[in-house]
Amino acid sequence: MDNFLASSLKQFHEFKSLGDKTFAQLSDEHLFWQFNPSSNSIALIVKHLHGNMLSRWTDFLHSDGEKEGRDRDMEFENTEMSRAQLITLWNEGWDCLFQALESLNEQDLTKTIFIRGEGHTVLAAIHRQLAHYPYHVGQIVYIGKMCQDEQWSSLSIPKGKSSEFNQEKFGQSKKV
């Protein structure tokens, strides 16, 4: 199970990295751009992730994962903020998650925690967020690609480069 914790942490770090690399390619305007009034901007998604992460992972072994002070609806309201403030929210949320997961041991995975009064094992709660956060990071990347269009630098294997990528990978020593 310790492998599960290490693997989960690695995955979460990779998802954060995708967001970081997307932000690096975008102007301040792009962070707040919305396709239409009913869609979310990157800024709104970051606000939502921040709220969710702080709520879920603060004192998560001892208090409900939906904290009383959280105003989820406000996470989806446009508010004035700078790029620096937005990046601070992004980093605070992830830091809260990483600190919580890094404090766990194998025995913690079978403990029961609550989210909105519903019991989950810690393992199930981690799985829940391994589905939730990449969903939103994918939205962030997709919006970034829409904003950058032809100037987008791929975060994975660029179109038309699969053979080249595979040739390079298979030419390396196998790693465990």
TrEMBL record:
InterPro entries: DinB/YfiT-like, DUF1572. The lineage of its organism: Bacteria, Pseudomonadati, Bacteroidota, Sphingobacteriia, Sphingobacteriales. This is DUF1572 domain-containing protein. It comes from Sphingobacterium athyrii.
